[in-house]
Amino acid sequence: MKRLALTAVLLLLTFQLHAADTGVARMSAFLKDVKTLKADFSQVVLDANGKQVKQSTGTLVIKRPDHFRWDYAKPNAEIIVADGKRLWLYDVELQQVTVKPLDATLAASPAVLLAGSNDVDKSFTVADLGEKDGLAWVQLTPKVKDSDFDSVKLGFKGDDLSVMELKDNLGNLTRISLDNVHRNPAVGDGSFHFTPPAGADVIGDTGDGKTHD
């Protein structure tokens, strides 16, 4: 589920849409304006029957392009960091770090558009869903069949992103709500530097010339 959440963030870092519809226009303006972002988040996962199976909270930091950090605090500590070249996933409880090239990670999902293309319509069907529950909604549906998700819905409150909803191929729904959103704060690249803790098991290529198993 965290992979889906990550895909949502990558999409947010990438898309610049041009349309007159309310929801799409808000998203276009948001993405055009936001270069860095800090926020608190709460994440809920619902199964295909609508039953809650997981809940978590944490903080996120974004710096376009190719830099982001998710710190899951509760119930299980986990860190997801993209430093511009690699994607690091650290499970604190298991003391396990998984690392992979960022471009390879993106190539496996529609988030490959993060490389710089603005041709969203080529890979996604974009729909303005109007307003519901005080939010303006936009839906992005991937045109490729091997995507990790069926659709992503973005809900905007005023000019800011408030909610992301991701539906996977099994019908599970991941809902991420953002609070205390700060646009364009000063964020240094050091926020996205990650060094595996001493004693942690490392899986993947860390860039030190060695492949860890």
Give structural notes.
The protein has 4 helices and 13 strands. By secondary structure, the chain is an alpha+beta fold. A 13-stranded mixed sheet has the order 7-8-9-10-11-1-2-3-4-5-6-12-13. The longest helix is centred in the first third of the chain and has 13 residues, at 2-14.
**Arithmetic mean pLDDT:** 81
The CATH topology name reads outer membrane lipoprotein receptor (LolB), chain A
Describe the largest sheet: 13 strands, mixed
The CATH architecture can be named as Clam
Binned strand content: over 45%
Beta-strand segment tally: 13
Number of domains: 1
Q: For the largest beta sheet, what order do the strands appear in spatially?
A: 7-8-9-10-11-1-2-3-4-5-6-12-13
Straight-line distance between termini = 23 Å
Q: What is the ordering of alpha helices and beta strands?
A: HHEEEEEEHHEEEEEEE
Name of the CATH class:
Mainly Beta
Low-confidence segments, ≥5 residues, pLDDT <50? 16-21, 107-118
The helix content, as a percent range, equals: 10-25%
- With helices defined by DSSP (H or I, 4 residues minimum), what is the helix count? 4
The CATH H-level homologous superfamily:
Lipoprotein localisation LolA/LolB/LppX
Gross morphology: globular
Radius of gyration: 17 Å
